[in-house]
Structure formats: structure tokens, C-alpha cells
Amino acid sequence: MKKISFLIALCIIATIVSGQRVVKVGAFNFYPGIFQDTDSKVKGFYVDALNEIAEKENIKFEYVYGSWNDGLVRMQNGEVDMLTSVAYSEERAGYMDYTSLPLLTVWGEVYVTPSSYINGILDLKDSKIAIMKGDMNGKRLQELTDKLAITCTFIETPGFEEVFNLIVSGGVDAGVVNNTFGASKYQEFNLRSSGIVFNPFDIFFTVKKNQNRELLETLNKYLGDWEHDRNSVYNQARQKWSNGKVGSIVIVPGWIKNAIYLSSFLIFILILFVVLLRYKVKIATGKVQRGEAMFKAFMENTPAFVYIKDENLNHIYSNKMVKNVKKSTNSNELSSAKIIFEPHVAEMLEQTDRKVLNSELKQIDLQYFCKMKDREIWLHDYKFYLKLPNEKPAIGGISFDVTKLKETEQELIIAKERAEESDRLKSSFLANMSHEIRTPLNSIIGFSELLDDADFEADQKKEFVHQIISNGNNLLNIISDIMDISKMESGEITIRKSKIDVMQFLDEIRSMHVYNVEQKNLRLNIDYLPAESDAVVFVNADKERLQQIFNNMISNALKFTSEGHIQLGFRLTGQMVEFHVKDTGIGIPVDYHHKVFDRFRQVEASYTRKFGGNGLGLAISKNLVELMGGKIWVESEPDKGSAFYFTLPKFG
Ligand code: ADP
Asked: What is the mean pLDDT of residues 130-156?
């Protein structure tokens, strides 16, 4: 208790020290002017208005809540300093001072349930009517009904809220409230106005008689200000608490009404126009979007490189193909063509770009081979002059990767060259062949005729016979070669493999050729390499065909060597036996190292004439070696001799 008294004292002292005046206000339920809310705080538009005064004038308004009658009693007892919404009466003026300006003009109104029979004052006969205790409206209705001799019973309630509650509960037939309360609450209580409206009067702020002159002046001052200012706190609070309905009487002039109708119509037309416009824009946008999507899909899926370059030769548009190339090269410097192409190609492109840009060329069709960083391609590039929407010049470009086309073209060129060469070779072969066949045939015929001649001795005739046999063999060889090559072409040649003792075989070969070699003052040796000398090496091959290969190679060596020697030999390389025939002859230029294995191919035509031959021997040898599972090659230098090598699988 002591503590509370101390705190109160402290508050009073604090208030005195701060110079703040405390004014006690008698509050009652006069919704929405003043009322107690569910959080038990006193609210309403009077309270909002007083709050402004409080703030500006350093006054503290303390609300003492009770019924309307309680408020009047408290004022008389001096428990409150001020009341709100007080109607003027002589009696009240005896103990209260009124503000010179009214707060509101209010009137009484009789409310009933929606189904009530009461629609005029005469219908109140014999009815029960609820009124608020001490309310002027109730008093005035009583006086009115008395005057009109309408008998009815009046039941007093502490407040307007209770009046409405009684009507709703059926405790009374009708109830009197002021219009401010009625208009803002009748919907909430589901009631209606009976149409009985009476006693319009002003209500005022009042203060305790002769004791609050200063406060009265302050209130008058603010009421004066509020009256002239639609946006004053008081008027705004009224609008807020009455949902903009109560106390606001708006008289709308006819021309404004017409203007409103006209504007509404115009707004409607405008909205219709906007809706239509939006619809049209939507359709147009849809079209543009579809077009754009189609363009995008086309550009992103075309195998062509499509681009647009601005006047600085930077790409301002590139489709996916171009972007991919750029990405695979250098993503940091996308716009630079030099990054993608080799410098000389980039240079060439830049120059042509500038020509197109300066309208020197309206369009240009280029094909170039470019080694990009990640691949090598042939591009067919079509560039053309463009004008951008901003009127600036630009270059449009579309390129295709024509690498495959180019490769096919190259292959066709090579094939054509080959066909022409083969044709040429065949012609020269036929010319040679006629020479190669005629020479031995002529010899045979010539020597055969001489055999008949009695002038020749028997010894001489023996030589003729030898010549006839030798030329006959040559002819046979030529015919065999032709037969072999045609069999090879038709794939009819057969290989019969067997186990061949390499050393023994080479000895046989040597014996077969040594005579002819030595006749030409050359030596024919067999290389016995130390590693192989002890071991018996077998090769898995067709013996006759192997002989044929050696015969070809030794005849060539003999043919193209004028001094020195011919060496035969072999060595083991893994599972293969590598044979060789080496000579110290005229050798073969590097360019021909592969060509000599082609059919009809001879190093030079003049050689043919000098050395003879049909250009088939090595082609047949190569074919045979490959059929037996080996490889053949030559190592040679002009004037230093040749070394022919071939491999065959070892036996077992
Ligand atoms: P040819 O019947 O013309 O000798 P080949 O197919 O055996 O046919 O040889 C093709 C060509 O290879 C020869 O015409 C010759 O130009 C060259 N050639 C072959 N062997 C030798 C060699 N040992 N030395 C120099 N050239 C050779």
C-alpha cells in the first residue's frame, strides 16, 4: 500500500514538475464518438481529437468510464473535469460550462427490428420503448408521445448499446438512440430505422462550472479550427470511426452528378478500349513471339554458321554453330576472328570483311581451308553487305562446313589422276610389250632360219639353238608374268605353303643364277649372318612362288648392276624371316620407292629401253609376298645400289 501511495505521489510530482495538466473526462458509450473497446481502452473520434489537443497543449486526458448518467453525477460531484456530447439544458448549465461551438448536431431516431410493424410515430401506441437513462432524446420522445396522447412504456438502460440489445432480444418493441450511434451500429445489430426522427440538437464539450476557464478556451479554439478544416484531426477521426458515413452530409450538385455519369461512361469506354488494345497487343505479341521462336529454332538447328558483324568487325549476332566454334577456341575473346583462324586466313577474312563493309563488294563467296584450334575444316563462306535498323553498315554471313565435299572432291581428283596414269601406263606397257615380245620372237625366227642355212658350222648352229631356247624362255617368262598379273587381278592365284629350309633354298637359288651373274663379271653371294648360321631356319611359304620372287629380284639386280656384286640373305625378326636381295647397281630415286611395286611402273622410260623389262615383276612379287602373309619394301639411293626386303612367316 505504501509502495502504491509512493508511486502515485511520484507520478503527481513528475506531472507537476513536467508542467502537464491532468483532465479527467467522463466517458460513456456514445459509439463511435467515445466508447470502451474490447481491450477496455476508451476510443472514438472524440478521443482522437482530444489526443491532438493533449499532445499540443501538454494536457493529459484521463477517461473515467461509466454510463451517461454516471458521467453527469461524477461531474456534479467533481470527480471528472469534463464531459463530451452534452446537450444544452438549463439544469445542466447550472453546474457545467459549455463550449461556445457545438461538437456535433445530432437527433433522436427510433430503431426497430426489420420485421417490426412500427413505421411512424402513431404506431408507437401501446409499445415498449427502450431509452438511455439521462438521454435528452428519450426525454423528448416521452414529451412528444405525451403531447400526442400516445400511450407507451419507456424502459431505461445505462447506454445506447443496451437499448439495441433490448430491441434485438425482443424485450422492447423499439428503442431510441441518437443518429450517430444508430447509423454506425444498426447493421451490426441487424435493425432498421423506423423513420421516426425528432429533436435535432447540438452537443457540446462541457467542463465543471467556473473552474476550467482555461480548458474551455482551449477547447473553443480547437473546435473553431476544426470546423473550418475538412482535414482536421477531428473530421478525419469522424470519417475513420464512422466508416465515412456518419455526420458527413454531402450534397452533390446536379452537374457534378452528370459529370460523374459521363466520366464513368468514358472510363468504361476507355477500359473497353484498353482491354481491346491489350487483346490486340497480345495477339500481335504472340505472333512476334512465335515468329521469333521459329527464327531461333531455325538458327539454332541449322548446320550453317550464321553471323552478323558490326562496323568494327565484332560479332553482334552469332548462331549456335558459331558460338560452339568460339567456345571450343577461346571463350575470353569471342569477337576476334584471329583467335579462331590461322593468322593468314584471319587476315584474308578481315580484308574481305572490310571490302564488303565499305560496299566495294556487295557480296563475296569464299572457300578456304582453316586450321582452327581444335579441328581442320573447309569452309564455304558467303558474306554480304547489310544495313542495320540504326542505318549503320554491317556484314551478314553464312558459312557451311564443306570439308566432306572437299575430301570427296580431292578423292575424285586423285582417282582421276590414277585412272589417267593407269591409262598412260597401260599404253606404255603395250608399247614395251610389243618390243619385249617381238625381240625374242624375232631372235627365235631369225636363228631358226639360220639353222636351215648350210653355210653355218655345227658349233655355230649349237649357239643358234641356245639363243632360240634362251629367247623362248624369255617369251615364256613374259607370258607367265602376264598370266600371273591377270590371275592376281581376278583373285584366282593359289598358294601352296610348305616347310622350306631357308639355307638350303638360298643355295639352290644361288646355283640357279650364279652362271648368269658371273657371265656379267659380277659376284653372287649369300650373307650368312652369325646368329642364323648355326640354326636351321624354316619358312612357311609356296616354294615355287618364293623362287619366282627371288628370280624377279635377282634378274632386276643383274639387269641394273654393271659392276660389283649381288647379295642374297635373310635374318630372323620375331616370328618372321626377313629376306633381302642387295645390289651395287644404279639404285632407285626415293620418289619411286613405292611406285616400283605398281603394275607397269618403271623408273624411267629410257631405262626400259636400255634395260628391257615389262614393269610387272615387282608388282607380282609384292602380291605374292602379301598373299603369303608378309611385307615388301625397298631401300635404295641412286648410284649406290638397291636393297629389296620382304618378310615371310617362320615355319612353326
Ligand atoms: P621390270 O620388268 O621393268 O624390271 P619390275 O617390276 O621388276 O619390272 O621393276 C620395275 C622397275 O623398278 C624397273 O623397271 C626399274 O626401273 C626398277 N628396279 C627394279 N629393281 C631394280 C634394281 N635392282 N635396281 C634399280 N632399279 C630397279
From this structure: 91
Q: What is the pLDDT of residues 504-515, one digit of tens each?
A: 999 999 999 999
Query: Is residue 177 within 8 Å of residue 109, measured between CB atoms?
Result: yes
Average pLDDT, the chain: 86
Q: Is 175 in the pocket of ligand 1 (CB under 6 A)?
A: no
Which residue type occupies 50? L
- DSSP-based three-state secondary structure for 101: coil
Can you give 550-590 as a three-state secondary structure string?
A: HHHHHHHHHHHCCCCEEEEEEEEECCEEEEEEEECCCCCCH
CB-ligand 1 contact for 440 (6 Å cutoff): no
Higher pLDDT, 512 or 202: 512
What contacts 72, CB < 8 A, 6 or more positions away? 26, 83, 92, 134
Phi-psi category of residue 353: left, alpha or beta, with phi > 0 → left and psi -120 to 50 → alpha: alpha
Are 569 and 526 within 8 A, CB to CB? yes
Confidence of residue 652 (pLDDT cuts 50, 70, 90): confident
What distance in Å separates the CA atoms of residue 285 and residue 259, rounded to the nearest whole number? 37
**Pocket flag, ligand 1, residue 556 (CB < 6 Å):** yes
Q: Which residue has the higher pLDDT, 136 or 622?
A: 622
More confident residue, 28 or 636: 636
pLDDT of residue 440: 86
Give the CA distances from residue 338 to residues 81, 316, 330, 356, 379, in Å, rounded to whole numbers and listed in that order. 95, 16, 11, 18, 15
Q: Using CB atoms within 10 A of its CB, is residue 104 exposed (0-12), middle (13-18) or buried (19+)?
A: buried
The tens digit of pLDDT for each residue in 243-291 reads 544 443 343 456 777 889 999 999 999 999 999 999 999 999 999 999 9
Q: Determine the residue type at 74.
A: R
Residue 601 clears pLDDT 50, i.e. is over it: yes
Q: Which distant-in-sequence residues (6+ apart) come within 8 Å of 87 by Cβ?
A: 136, 201, 202, 203, 204
CA of 602 to the centre of ligand 1 (A): 6
Q: What is the DSSP-derived secondary structure letter of residue 591? A: G
In angstroms, the CA 288 to CA 192 distance is 60
Residue 9 has pLDDT above 70, yes or no: no
What is the number of the ligand 1 atom nearest to the C-alpha of 585? Answer: 24
Task: Give the rounded percent of residues in the chain with a pLDDT score beyond 90.
Answer: 48
- Burial class for 3, CB neighbours closer than 10 Å (0-12, 13-18, 19+): exposed
Query: Is residue 552 within 6 Å of ligand 1 at its C-beta?
Result: yes
- Residue 416, C-alpha cell as written in the block: 582421276
Three cell numbers written together for 542: 609356296
